[in-house]
Amino acid sequence: MEEHLSPPVERVSSEDEVRLAEPPLFRVLLINDDYTTMEFVVAVLKNVFHKSEAEATRIMLNVHQQGAGVCGLYPYEIAETKVDAVEALARENGFPLKCTMEKE
Q1: What is the structure's pLDDT at 19?
Q2: 3-state secondary structure string, 51-75?
Q3: Alpha helix ranges (H) inside 1-104
Q4: 18-62 pLDDT per residue, tens
C-alpha cells in the first residue's frame, strides 16, 4: 500500500503578516501668477482634479490670495500625471500657470 504524504503546510499567524506600507502622498499645488484667469484655474480644478464648482472656486481663491493652493493629495505617479496635465493645458491655452508637487 502506497502512502501519499502531502507537503507540510506553513501557517502564518496574524502577528507575522507583513503589512504593506501606504505609498507616500504628494500635495499638488497651483501657483499664482498675474496672467492666468480665475476662470481658467476653476476649469482646471474641475476637469483635472474633479472638483465641484464650489470647491474649485475655494481653491482658486486660495491660489489668488495666498500665492498657492492645494488641489489634492496623491501617490507620486498620479500627482506627477496631474502636474503634467495642468501644465500642458495651461500652455495650450496660452497661460503661464505653474503646478508643482511636494511630499506630504
Answers
A1: 74
A2: CCHHHHHHHHHHHHHHCEEEEEEEE
A3: 38-47, 53-66, 76-92
A4: 678 888 999 999 999 999 999 999 999 999 999 999 999 999 999
> C-alpha cell of 86?
495642468
Q: How far is CA 69 from CA 12, 14, 65, in A?
A: 46, 42, 9
Cell representation of residue 97: 500657470
Residue 65, all three cell numbers: 490670495
Report the distance separating Cα 26 and Cα 13, nearest Å.
34
SS3 call for 30: strand
Cα of 28 vs its chain's centroid, Å:
6
Distance CA 68, CA 63 (A): 4
